Amino acid sequence: MSNEAADSLMAANSLMAANPLMAADSPPAVIPLEEDAFWQDPYPILSRIRDQHRTGTTDAGLKAILRWDDAEDLLKGDLFENEGLEYIERRGFRPGDALYEWRRHSIGALNGADHARIRSLVSRALTHRSVDGLRPRIREHAETLLRNGDADGRIEARTQFATRLPFLAITDFLGIRMDEAVEVAEKMGAGSADAFGPKVTQEIRDNANGMFGAIMEFVAELYEDRRKAPRDDLLTALISSEEGGDRLSHDELIVLFTNIFGGAIETTASVIASGLYEMARHPEQAALLRSDPERWKKGAAEETIRMRPGFYAAGKKAVRAHSAYGLDFEEGEPISLLIGGPNRDPSRWRDPDRFDIQRDPRIWSMTFSMGEHFCLGQALARCEVQEAMVAFVLHCDEIELEGEPRWLPHVMVNRLESLPIRYRPR
Ligand code: HEM
User: Fold this and answer.
1) Pairing of strands 55-58, 30-31
2) DSSP state, 408?
3) Radius of gyration from C-alpha coordinates of the chain
4) Residue 310 beta carbon below 6 angstroms from any ligand 1 atom
5) What are the phi and psi torsion angles at 48 (to 5°)?
6) Which of 3, 34, 127, 394 has a CA 20 to 30 Å removed from the CA of 170?
7) Does the beta carbon of 304 lie inside 6 Å of ligand 1?
């Protein structure tokens, strides 16, 4: 066991000793992020720790929030905020690294007035109403992908469907040309979010710096292009607002564009793949959705979003020293909100480990976070997951997994290595 792991075990044990409500013989509240088995099925472990101990500590010694009420309090209150550059410094990035320079302006790393100023420029473009206009196009893309990917009732649903749909949707949304989008996506590469995960190796750092350097350069070229030849798209609109009100610097604008493009694909692909996975595991729920798609699509999407959150965690830090959730925090101390904890809290959902598309879809989960940094793209993501699941069950009957798929361990965006599915075409 590493020193860090031993220290955190001791910390967890002393926490138990200090809390008379914890059963003396219950296992310590250590969340084993180092173990592959945890990533294959984290939910029973998170539930046990949440129910027995309230909070947990990761095996690297990071405090973690697991209950719904605590998570809501943390995100809506003003005692915690998003981490800035320290988040990637802990992962070995340094000034001058492309990812470091990118994060200086990244919306997720800013707080207060700086954050609000940038966020307000794009939030209106991403409301449910503005995104709903894209719905028929998204459905059409989903149907085309399924028809093209279909090889005699077999599909590798992650790469041939789940990853492609969000790419097409964000390309439509941003109004950029397909050749431009392909170039952005290629430069961004798969796994750009791994640099934010719990275990960052030199290889991940080198990849991330290469990707973020290339993407910044490419978007700067796009920016110049739109300045010379404006189009009816979000980038041109952002440039006009920059020039009109001098509200965004050149670097801020470029980073904001990559935040939207980059935030949109891997996360949504993860949840869409999970939706298909659940349809294969629950034929009776697939049949219900197929029987009346308009009635059940919100429930099907929301249940997938709750049970299989795209991100495994959201990171915050204490604004000042204080005590909360039975823990003491130093000023600036990081904390992790492990989304699988609150999303399966029985105080909010009865029988939370059961996949049930008939639950009330208005009871939102923590998947898109809450408060000031609430996911900007949630309306688009929800629309995509709904249309993807409907298109899938209408195209496929007798859906079966070809073997039990594996979840990639240690990554920020939960994702299946692959998702081979067999079905009877309808
Ligand atoms: C199912 C898919 C998605 C999931 C699970 C997801 C989840 C999240 C989470 C957990 C956050 C962090 C909130 C925090 O710091 O507390 C976030 C922020 C963000 N997301 Fe998403 N997201 C998804 C799709 C999208 C899409 C489609 C877009 C773009 C169209 C997008 C753009 C953003 C942006 C720009 C932020 C930063 C917001 C801020 O810091 O103010 N996301 N998302």
Assistant:
1) parallel
2) P
3) 22
4) yes
5) -60, -45
6) 394
7) no
Architecture, CATH, for domain 62-425: Orthogonal Bundle (1.10)
Which SS3 state, helix, strand or coil, does residue 375 take? coil
pLDDT at 247 over 70: no
Locate the domains of the chain by residue range: 62-425
Q: To which H or E segment does residue 291 belong? A: helix 283-291
Residue with CA closest to ligand 1 atom 15:
373
- Residue among 116, 246, 199, 96 at smallest CA distance from 408: 199
103: Cβ below 6 Å to ligand 1?
Answer: no
Q: Give per-residue pLDDT as tens, 102-151.
A: 999 999 999 999 899 889 888 877 887 778 889 999 999 999 999 987 77
Rounded to an integer, the average pLDDT of 76-92 is: 94
Neighbours of 143 (CB within 10 A): 16
- The CA dihedral of 112, 382, 160, 420, to the nearest 10 degrees, is 110
DSSP 271: H
CB 67 within 8 A of CB 347: yes
Q: Cα 182 vs. chain centroid, distance in angstroms?
A: 22
Q: What are phi and psi of 368, to 5 degrees?
A: -100, 15
Q: How far apart are CA 197 and CA 211, in angstroms?
A: 16
Give residue-wise pLDDT tens across range 23-32.
Answer: 444 445 999 9
Give the pLDDT band of residue 241 (cuts 50, 70, 90). Answer: low
Dihedral over alpha carbons 218, 222, 227, 233 (to 10 degrees): -140
Give residue 20 CA to ligand 1 midpoint distance, Å: 39
